[in-house]
Amino acid sequence: MRSLAAAHPPIALGPLDGRYRAAVAPLVDFLSEAALNRERVHVEVEWLIHLTRQGAVPGVRRLTDEEIRQLRDIPVQFDVADIAELADIEHETVHDVKAVEYYLKRRLPQIVGTADAPGLSELVHFACTSEDINNLSYALMVQGATRRVWLPKASALVEQIATMARELADVPLLAHTHGQPATPTTMGKELAVLAYRLRRQLQRIERAEYLGKINGATGTYGAHVAAVPTTDWVEVSQLFVEGLGLQWNPLTTQIESHDWQSEIYSDIARFNSILHNLATDVWTYISMGYFAQSRGQGTVGSSTMPHKVNPIRFENAEANLELSNGIFDVLCRTLVNSRLQRDLTDSSMQRNIGTAYGHSLLAIDNVSRGLAGLDAVPAKMAADLDANWEVLGEPIQSAMRALGARGVPGMEQPYERLKELTRGRRISEADLREFVRGLGLPNTVEARFLELTPETYVGLAPQLVRFL
């Protein structure tokens, strides 16, 4: 048997880089290993520029505008050739961040001139520990992936759900609590509940903080002060971090504590969980016949049963949401812990951030495509409502309670009387009408309940959708 491991181009080990590549490809620009190295180059370039602009190291000349433009063009033009070059350097250094430092130093003579390059090159990675570069790189990567890829896709899905809720606001639906027929609602209102929950999580994620630090090997500015004691390194650090569009963290060990990462991953995981709830609910509605999978399917439902159209989009979403949350859960619990001033567990953990985002993004894509292929079936919902007249026991006994509280005679034990009529058995419209006529209700109340049907007993459900 030939080895597949030797195939070229390489065969993907996991589904995100294989079968599902198209759905998650935008994340490669932010959360891949190559994106990490590009962001490291970006941070190192900006640190060099910042040091010269701030005059942090006396005696070093300021970079010209043209030199700054050329330096900033390095990460902008970062491509496969640069990835390969960095890999070659890392093969020698056996250190990824040191490889980035050497990679930049190779380019300085062409930008600042051979005379100034030796001096200026010493400011590349000046007073930095690897984590000064890594924590800022990851913050920028996660910020970009969240704001530019994940949030737009998630927001579009929530708006898609909200649009369905508005369209189905008036379509009556037999509710099921504990799996049993319950007070009717509308399909739109039930979708609105899920859209509202998902939107709240998006609002939290939109407000997320992305923290960063650049303060040395144990967060003390020790090397900075020892090298140049006259510079206000705290101010230099704060201005640099905030200049990258991040929130400055003034108190850290060697690592930025990653609490902000745990917070945002927890919020995304909660969004995932609510979306999982939607996927299982819609799957159930499909199985009950309340939705028909009629549009844009074009798939083989079953390899042996021609009539089937399986709700695979929602099942796929469930699996991917569970995988995403499993990874996010480990990230949340692990990243907030570090032995004393540093251990390396976070380094391996953070390389899986893209996988967590990828499975979530894939699930969002599947739910969106699944919903787009659905048509509501109001006739089936109406048929189920018409088969469950016993659900009107609730409003009748509630009205009797209100009448009894006002002193209307004959309204005693309303719950018990409706329980005797309805519990454990189906009743017909005729049964209910006969029962209502025998209650001795005031004429206006009796007339109201003689007109009430399971289909019209939806309370304020249609109006509640407006809260979206």
TrEMBL record:
GO BP field: 'de novo' AMP biosynthetic process; 'de novo' IMP biosynthetic process
Record's keyword terms, sorted: Lyase, Purine biosynthesis
Membrane spanning stretches: none
Alphabetized Pfam families for the sequence: ASL_C, Lyase_1
Fumarate lyase N-terminal domain sequence ranges: 18-317
UniProt keyword annotation of Nucleus present: no
UniProt cross-references to PROSITE patterns, sorted A to Z: FUMARATE_LYASES
Pathway terms, separated by semicolons: Purine metabolism; IMP biosynthesis via de novo pathway; 5-amino-1-(5-phospho-D-ribosyl)imidazole-4-carboxamide from 5-amino-1-(5-phospho-D-ribosyl)imidazole-4-carboxylate: step 2/2; Purine metabolism; AMP biosynthesis via de novo pathway; AMP from IMP: step 2/2
GO molecular function terms listed in the Swiss-Prot or TrEMBL record: (S)-2-(5-amino-1-(5-phospho-D-ribosyl)imidazole-4-carboxamido) succinate lyase (fumarate-forming) activity; N6-(1,2-dicarboxyethyl)AMP AMP-lyase (fumarate-forming) activity
Record domain Adenylosuccinate lyase PurB C-terminal: where: 338-458
EC number annotated for this UniProt entry: 4.3.2.2
Catalytic activity entry: (2S)-2-[5-amino-1-(5-phospho-beta-D-ribosyl)imidazole-4-carboxamido]succinate = 5-amino-1-(5-phospho-beta-D-ribosyl)imidazole-4-carboxamide + fumarate; N(6)-(1,2-dicarboxyethyl)-AMP = fumarate + AMP
Functional description taken from the UniProt entry: Catalyzes two reactions in de novo purine nucleotide biosynthesis. Catalyzes the breakdown of 5-aminoimidazole- (N-succinylocarboxamide) ribotide (SAICAR or 2-[5-amino-1-(5-phospho-beta-D-ribosyl)imidazole-4-carboxamido]succinate) to 5-aminoimidazole-4-carboxamide ribotide (AICAR or 5-amino-1-(5-phospho-beta-D-ribosyl)imidazole-4-carboxamide) and fumarate, and of adenylosuccinate (ADS or N(6)-(1,2-dicarboxyethyl)-AMP) to adenosine monophosphate (AMP) and fumarate.
Family: Belongs to the lyase 1 family. Adenylosuccinate lyase subfamily.
Name this protein carries in UniProt: Adenylosuccinate lyase
Organism: Flexivirga caeni
